Amino acid sequence: MPQQPRQSHSQHPLQRLIRYGHQYHSQIRWAIACSILNKIFDLAPPALIGAAVDVVVQKQNSWLAQFGVRDVFGQLVILSVLSAVIWGLESAFEYAYARLWRNLAQNIQHDLRLDAYGHLQNLELAFFEERSTGGLMSILSDDINQLERFLDFGANEVLQVATTVVIIGGAFFILAPSVAWLAMLPMPFILWGSIAFQKRLAPRYAEVREKVGLLNGQLSNNLSGITTIKSFTTEQYERSRIATESEGYRRSNYRAIRLSAAFVPLIRIIILFGFIAILLLGGMEAVAGRLSVGSYSVMVFLTQRLLWPLTRLGETLDQYQRAMASTNRVMNLLDTPIEIHSGHLSLPVKSVRGEVDLQHVTFAYRDRQPVIEDLSLHIPAGKTIAIVGSTGSGKSTLVKLLLRLYEIQSGTITLDGIPLQDLQLQDLRGAIGLVSQDVFLFHGTVRENIAYGSPEANWDEIIAATRVAEAHDFIMQLPQGYDTIVGERGQKLSGGQRQRLAIARAVLKDPPILILDEATSAVDNETEAAIQKSLETITQNRTTIAIAHRLSTVRNADCIYVMEQGRLVEKGRHDQLLDRSGIYASLWRVQTGLRA
Asked: Are 59 and 72 in contact (CB under 8 A)?
């Protein structure tokens, strides 16, 4: 996978793309050579036609007769053989450039998608909170595909149009220098017009890419929330929102199309003057005897060959501008700096004791007040501690900080005495098993989801993990048991079933530190009791951090920390906290209806 130095956003997108694909420069050079050679041989038949006309008209006095072949039949045979050779070479180089450009497009597309996705995975959570999933999907899919389409066809078109202009221009000046300048006169105007159109089209296509990202974001958001849409009967409302975004996309495309569609007709009109000049003045030169009939035929044919490629220049330019707008979006994603970097120290999972210490930790989400402020707490190795508090007190944020999903603003967090910033991220997160209240299951089988993160686990280990999580019985009642497809985000399962699979997944991972973030919030009382009994076994000789709202789930913890507005306000065992008649005791009374 190519790794490039980050480039400045001020660079032209084509420069950024060329520097990105530096390892393919040899393939690019071969593709360019094959495109040019194919066009050279493609332009040769008009010259052969002109030579044939010259043979028929001049016979033994033809241009070809100067090389010693005076027989007319012999001259035509030579031209026939040359035609076969040229046609064969043209076909061979067309096959070569098609393979080279298309494979190049596939390779760069593949590398870009993997690099962009890999870079995306390394970005902090704050990045994703400020962008829609659909917008990012648009970059990873639609924008990269747009670039592929240009490399497939557009790059070759640009080269062949340039080759056509150079070859035909040279031929004109060789055959009839007195009138060639008239045929080439439109060229500066065409180039100037192309550049002018490019400058005006660039911002319009940038707007198109922006609009399609917004549309994809809304579509992705709606499909993810289809249950909510149906339950609130807001189908028409959401359809109108999609219509608004789609209309914005349509209008931005309309503005781009209105300009790009004018390009080809204008080019035709400009080229018409060159064609008329050759047709009229070249014909007069031939009649006057200053230009041979064969040369005149070649010039007429070549003028026609010049016309059609230049009319396609508008379509090619259109494709180029779309590709450059997409390239900018992909490269800007790759240039997004990574805020959370892996440390340099290795800490193998088997050597982790699980002692966690927070000293004067302060953290705030971007542009918000601190969620955690000057927090200090100690989590002994192998103990079960609970963190409780009202909604918004910072409990779940603390989990994200332990996993370094966010970076603290001040203070230190250590694992076994080592600051988290110094540890390799893979080692840190590999040492922690998380069971979140927001369970995410991937589209796949029950077995695949349980073994996610533990691909080496065997069948017996998976079964043992599900039994511990009280999940085996309900899995066996599913249509295909462990091979049942759970659906996207596990939508075919109930909330309690999803949570038990998440617990089984964490148990199978067997981490030295287990974090239970409202791990039993979506299960019934009977299942909760069974899971709590299993957790007593799971948490032995393992550091366990239980984030809980239901206090009944943590009453047996070795220590309970009570948080309020990002600060630690109480700590102790269950009975001790009840005796203090503080915040914990108040929460206990509200939840149980009992007096402390």
From this structure: yes
Contact criterion met (CB below 8 Å) for 208 and 323: no
In CATH terms, 343-431+543-596 corresponds, of 3.40.50.720, 2.102.10.10, 3.40.50.300, 3.40.50.2000, to 3.40.50.300
3-state secondary structure labels for all residues of 1-25: CCCCCCCCCCCCHHHHHHHHCHHHH
The region of weakest confidence among 156-170, 245-259, 327-341, 473-487 is: 156-170
Strand partners, 418: 415
Provide the token pair at 181: 């300048």
Q: 265 burial class (0-12, 13-18, 19+ CB within 10 angstroms)?
A: exposed
CA contacts within 13 A on the Cβ side of 243: 6
Cβ atoms of 208 and 325 closer than 8 Å: yes
Q: Is residue 4 over pLDDT 50?
A: no
Domain ranges of the chain: 14-334, 343-431+543-596
- d(CA 59, CA 51) in angstroms, rounded, equals 11
Beta strands 432-435; 356-364: pairing state: unpaired
CA-CA-CA-CA dihedral for 322, 323, 328, 331, to nearest 10: 150
Separation between Cα atoms, residue 124 and residue 112, nearest integer Å: 20
pLDDT at 357: 92
User: Tens of pLDDT along 416-448?
Assistant: 889 999 999 888 888 888 888 777 788 888 888
Instruction: Quote the percentage of the chain above a pLDDT of 70.
Output: 86
pLDDT for the residue numbered 1 = 41
pTM metric for this prediction: 0.72
Helix (H) or strand (E) holding 164: helix 155-175
**Mean pLDDT value across residues 11-40:** 86
Instruction: Return the closest-CA partner of residue 209 out of 112, 139, 127.
Output: 139
Looking at residue 100, what is its pLDDT? 92
Best CATH choice for the domain 14-334 from the list 2.30.42.10, 3.40.50.300, 3.90.78.10, 1.20.1560.10 = 1.20.1560.10
Distance CA 53, CA 392 (A): 89
Query: pLDDT by residue (tens digit) across 272-288?
Result: 777 777 777 777 777 87
Residue 210: CB atoms within 10 Å: 17
| Measured distance CA(539)–CA(547) in Å, rounded | 14
- Calculate the dihedral angle through the C-alpha atoms of 363, 221, 436, 411, rounding to the nearest 10 degrees: -10
Q: In this structure, what DSSP letter does residue 137 have?
A: H
Amino acid at 343: G
Answer for the pair 381, 459: CB distance below 8 angstroms, yes or no: no
Mean pLDDT value of segment 15-37: 87
